[in-house]
Write the structure tokens for this entry.
Amino acid sequence: MTMKLKNILLVVAISASTALLSVWGYGTWMNSQNALSMQQDGKLPVNYAGFFEKGNSAGGPVDFTAASTAATPAVVHIKTRTKEKKLSNNLPRNNSPFSDLFGDDDPFSNFFGGPRSNVIPEQRASGSGVLISNDGYIVTNNHVVEGADEIAVTTTTRKTYKGTVVATDPNSDLAVIKIEGTNLPFLAYGNSDDVKLGQWVLAVGYPLNLDVTVTAGIVSAKARSIGINKGDRPIESFIQTDAAVNPGNSGGALINTSGELIGINSAIASPTGSYAGYSYAIPVNIVKKIVSDLMKFGTVQRAYIGISYPPDNLPEEKKKELGIKDGAGVFINGVADDGAAKQSGIEKGDFITKINGVEVNSGPELQEQVARYKPGDKVTVTYVRNGKESNVSLSLKNKSGNYEAVKQESVLDKLKADLETVDKATAKKNEITGGVLVKSIGKGLLKNTRMQEGFVITSVDGQEVNNLDDLKAILSNAQGTVRLEGIYPGYEGTYGYPLNLSDSGDSNDK
């Protein structure tokens, strides 16, 4: 019975929103450093949404009222709208005899190899968010604001603000958005390392489009990996609770009975899509680091030891086949040639047992510790080889194998295509003023469209594109899904391709 139930459980992101938004105004992060640095330093202004009574002793009854009252004003309702999108099947030629009559909307084009028009209707969704500064910075889940064209943020006072995305990280499923306000209540960061199994916690959010809601439960597990985060190197080390969480709670607060933020609610495990006993939150110690990176750099400064390790749930037969030994800590089944681990003497077959003195016994626990650091940071790694424990100090590297800060990719970098401004002769021959020639699709965002090499981009969402600079400027200011339109030289008609700017480019290589 247990195995049957396990097989039907679904891991559900507890929001209905779609696709990652582009980055906004990183220079403005400086405006909020006073309030946010106070968060980091443990100093708080008088208008924080806090409750630091430590009187809830383990031996007496627990009262949730003060923590709930303090936290709810700092948790907001996020509503998103994704506009109607017109799509086509993007074949390079329409041979239908009715194409002159119907154009791109030719209903007979399916039979003659031409573009087929489809419409994705407008979509609306909602989730939750947590104010982390008095001037309107909010942390939420990436999947709450993913792909949204419009974001509305409503507080418990019923006041609604326009939300703007600052930056997002699909690997951790976190996003930072901003509203324009002053003297706003915000939650104080707690310490997720202090979270213990069995302790009471509260989930605060806006489930099922209801008003702000508080539920209580206990911490039932830590360092859970459930395989839900997107991105090329996902980070998962969730706090598991049995506080009731439903669709709409995504991005809301997990707090302790002192009213401190200890996690961001993100997902549930359920056979139905609604709450069935388990919910998962991103530990606040990971949240703090990623939010700081997103606001300062526009991208996460991800650090790596330079190792690979097997999944924690690998069957015993597979372990024997791969020569994986049992032991305390995380077994290393590979080291990168240019990684910090190899340079410090760590070898395949060793067990990493501690990072800066903190014990790690699983992949997610190792991920959680390393995720707190940036390239160039020095850490002490404790490892065991042939029963002997050793300590080594190493400098973490970035994914490129050096110590430099990771730079934010431009939109054209994400396209990873071979592009050039169309030459004047081609433009004149095809009666266009200019455009951008797609010489090669590459392995970036364009590979997710049905565009073919040789396409010339002449406009984006109706904005004229005459050269590469035009394309870069338009895409840099765009969000969600845009429509690239243009021609195939030598063919009649124009064609359109939807491009999701939110799509992401070895989760076990840290």
